[in-house]
Design brief:
This protein has 413 residues and is of the alpha/beta class. It has 11 helices and 21 strands. A hairpin with a 5-residue loop joins strand 17 and strand 18 (384-385).
């Protein structure tokens, strides 16, 4: 019988702020990259000093850290791997996420105490490949995203019981099989398979006829052009029972290039959904507020990917994200001494503009959001202001409900 201890919620971190969000909002494990060999070159990522801090903090809180080594390194980079792998092992990382067989071999040689997880970039879609990788030393396989529940259940039944299965359950989806895309490399010189994708699949495209310079023709009849490769975003929050009971060990959220806010919201939603399911399996149903939370982060149209068969399809009428909420501030302190003459104040750091009288949506460390009204705003000199108008400014706000420390303050557009 599957218990909550058998299911891991795995969250992304592109920097320390994202890492803290994942930890604060309930991740069992966090995946991130060092300064080399990770598939998200655009993220800040972690040098060895910050990686050590992250690992120590995670372990103190009962969480794990997985380091991505999932690029396809060229021969001139191979000589850099042993030192990187040894340093990561010395720091205490729990696993490497690996796509390349040569890297897997080196990890076993130079960091034998670190588990090896096989990246989705490897494109594993059958039990025979999973078994070969297990015999080579892999403890977990991150299945290709193109798998159905039936496929997953069959693989689970035909691999060793102690080999774990990880799948993506939320986030952006690549238009190419298992992320093996060359469009970015062709068009911009930025290699997607080395962590530097420019995402040209999200760009707008028209037809251009050689003898009609300056005239652009839409591929379909739409004045805004068309979006040929633009995948929908994956969202499996409404299918926690199927995920848990199919034999999956780790539920993975995509997004190492995304914000700490995204990490907080998605981690929190899946954490509550998983907890609720195990609290009462027979009577479980997804609470509406949990599903609504995922509409409060920037996203493309949601779908369930390949889990139920068929193709997830593309968003053909636009290339942008759906953005309905802005983070306006984050909470740092409550009842600050500098403003001791005014009761019930919360110290915040401004992120986007908001006004006195605004209704704001609070995501608290407990994870259950609530609405409140900003009754007053004060600057650090104790002067009342009508609008928070300066990025990263420290302010004090008075509201009609207490705002816990580490809360994220949002406003609907």
């Amino acid at each position: 019988m599957v218990t909550i201890n058998d299911i891991e919620l795995l969250s992304p971190a592109g920097d320390m702020e994202c890492f803290n969000s994942a930890l604060d909002f309930g991740a069992n494990a966090i995946y991130l990259a060092g300064k080399q060999f990770g598939m998200r070159a655009g993220a800040s990522n972690f040098d060895m000093d910050n990686l050590k801090i992250a690992v120590n903090k995670a372990h103190q809180n009962g969480a794990k850290v997985y380091v991505t080594c999932n690029t396809l390194p060229r021969s001139n980079e191979i000589e850099l791997l042993p030192e990187f792998l040894q340093n990561a092992q010395n720091i205490g990382v729990d696993a490497f996420i690996i796509a390349d067989l040569g890297v897997m071999n080196l990890a076993g040689k130079y960091a034998p105490n670190v588990e090896r997880h096989i990246s989705t970039q490897t494109g594993v879609v059958n039990y025979e490949t999973a078994n070969v990788l297990y015999n080579m030393g892999a403890s977990r396989v991150v299945l290709a995203r193109e798998m159905t529940f039936d496929d997953i259940r069959e693989i689970r039944a035909k691999i060793p019981k102690d080999m774990e299965i990880e799948v993506f359950v939320h986030g952006s989806m690549c238009v190419s099989f298992s992320g093996r895309c060359l469009i970015s490399s062709y068009m911009t010189g930025r290699d997607a398979n080395r962590g530097d994708c420019a995402q040209p699949c999200r760009w707008k495209y028209h037809l251009f006829e050689q003898n009609r310079e300056g005239q652009y023709f839409p591929v379909e009849e739409d004045s805004d052009g068309t979006f040929l490769y633009n995948s929908r975003d994956l969202c499996m929050i409404e299918h926690i029972p199927e995920l848990v009971e199919s034999g999956i060990t780790s539920l993975k959220i995509e997004g190492r290039a995304k914000s700490a806010y995204y990490t907080a919201v998605t981690t929190n939603a899946y954490r509550h959904a998983i907890n609720d399911y195990f609290a009462d399996k027979e009577n479980y149903s997804l609470k509406p507020w949990i599903r609504q939370e995922l509409d409060k982060v920037s996203h493309r149209e949601y779908n369930t990917g390949f889990f139920f068969g068929g193709e997830p399809g593309q968003v053909v009428n636009n290339g942008g994200y759906i953005r309905e909420y802005d983070v306006v501030a984050v909470c740092e302190e409550i009842d600050c001494e500098i403003m001791e003459n005014i009761n019930g104040l919360t110290k915040v750091v401004q992120r986007n503009r908001f006004f006195k009288g605004d209704e704001v949506d609070i995501l608290t460390p407990s994870g259950i959001p609530f609405l409140t009204t900003v009754k007053n705003i004060y600057n650090i000199y104790g002067q009342e202001v009508e609008v928070a108008n300066h990025a990263m400014e420290e302010l004090y706000i008075n509201t009609d409900a207490d705002i816990p420390v580490k809360s994220i303050i949002r406003k609907k557009r």
